[in-house]
Structures are given as C-alpha cells and as structure tokens.
Design a protein that fits this description.
Pfam families: TetR_N. By secondary structure, the protein is mainly alpha-helical. The chain is built from 10 helices and 2 strands; from the N terminus they run ββαααααααααα. The protein has a two-stranded antiparallel sheet. Helix 1 crosses helix 2.
Length: 208
C-alpha cells in the first residue's frame, strides 16, 4: 500500500475497480476457453475455471450468471473478433469493389483456419453446439444468439435468385463453420482456399 497526499492508502498498480473487473472477466474467459477446448464443457467445472485463472468461484458468479452465461460471453468474444477482423469485415468493406472484397475475404478466412489456435477454436465451437443440443434452455439461448448474428448479416444482403437475405446469411454461416471443420480434419482434400469459391457462388452476384 502507498500513501497519497491526503493520507489515504491506495492499492499500488491495482488500477480502477472497472479495470480490475475487466481483468478478472478476461482471465476467466481465457481459462474457460482453454479448459473447455481441452476437456469439454462438461469436463471442466466453474471451480476448475476459477482455479485455473487463479481466482475463486465467487469471482465467476460476480461476473457471470452461470456456465451458460460464461459460454455465451466466450462465444460473443469469438464472433466479435470474426466480425472486426476476418471474412465478414472484408465482405462488408463498402470502400472496395466487390471483386476485391471477395478475394480479401478468402484470404482472411484462410489465415484464420490455418493460423495458430484454429484447432482449439474449432473444438470449442463443437463444444458450444453439443452443450446447446444437450441442454434445452442453453440451446434456445445459443440458437437465438446465432439467429441475431445471421440477421445482422442478412440486413446487408438483397433478395435474389430465389434466396431471401435470411437464406443467404444462413448459407454463409454454414459455409464458414462447415468448411472449417472439414479442412481441419482433412486439410489436403478440403483446402481452406475453397472458401473463396463458395463465397463467390453465394455472394458474387449480389455484392454492390
């Protein structure tokens, strides 16, 4: 502890209460991501996550309502990363011509599924889906969460060739997730570069 000019003690290097809370939340999310990818969601408890983060279980419940809330926060973080630094960001860059956006989206996707942590992220996504299919209440929350993301994408797409914007958005998500799983399991026969061909087939004639 250090004394301030007013004689009150302050915590050295502790940061503000908000900063400490954000640090705690980030530590829990990182621990959950690591343990759930390695052991599965049912194989790592909230106690395990708190211990791995060097915190108490009380710290978990002061930041998250429970396991499902923690899971959704982790899913949110991954999707925010995808939307701000990945294929989606490139596809919606209205400052570039459609051809350039499609090419850059393909490059971004390839970097994501071949880079460090790609396999761990895929395992984690599988765990999300399995957890949602086994737990009815969690499943509805995860389904609603995905529906909102598809809706966000659909708002930027036109209706054409018998496909509604919602249809096309669902197919884009299916391509993104499904191709990643196939590539990580069989990279030689399912190259990541196939994504660009798929996204061209889905969006090549509708981007403007």
């Amino acid at each position: 502890m250090a004394e301030t000019g007013t004689g009150r003690a302050t915590r050295r290097g502790g940061g503000s209460r908000r900063e400490r809370r954000e640090q705690t939340r980030a530590a829990l999310l990182e621990a959950a991501e690591r343990l759930w990818a390695e052991h599965g969601i049912h194989g790592a408890s909230l106690d395990d996550i708190a211990s791995s983060a060097g915190l108490t279980k009380g710290a978990v419940y002061s930041n998250f309502a429970g396991k499902t809330d923690l899971l959704l926060a982790l899913l949110e973080r991954h999707t925010d990363d995808r939307l701000t630094d990945g294929p989606c960001q490139e596809l919606h860059d209205a400052g570039r011509p459609p051809e350039d956006r499609l090419r850059r989206a393909g490059d971004a996707y390839t970097r994501r599924v071949t880079g460090d942590g790609a396999r761990s992220r895929a395992l984690l996504l599988v765990e999300f889906w399995l957890y949602g299919m086994r737990d009815y209440a969690a499943g509805w929350r995860i389904a609603d969460w995905y529906a909102e993301r598809r809706s966000r994408l659909a708002r930027r797409l036109p209706e054409r060739d018998g496909l509604t914007p919602a249809d096309r958005a669902a197919l884009v998500v299916a391509l993104d997730v499904g191709l990643a799983f196939q590539h990580l399991l069989d990279p030689e026969r399912v190259p990541a570069e196939l994504y660009e061909k798929g996204i061209r087939a889905l969006l090549g004639g509708v981007l403007s």
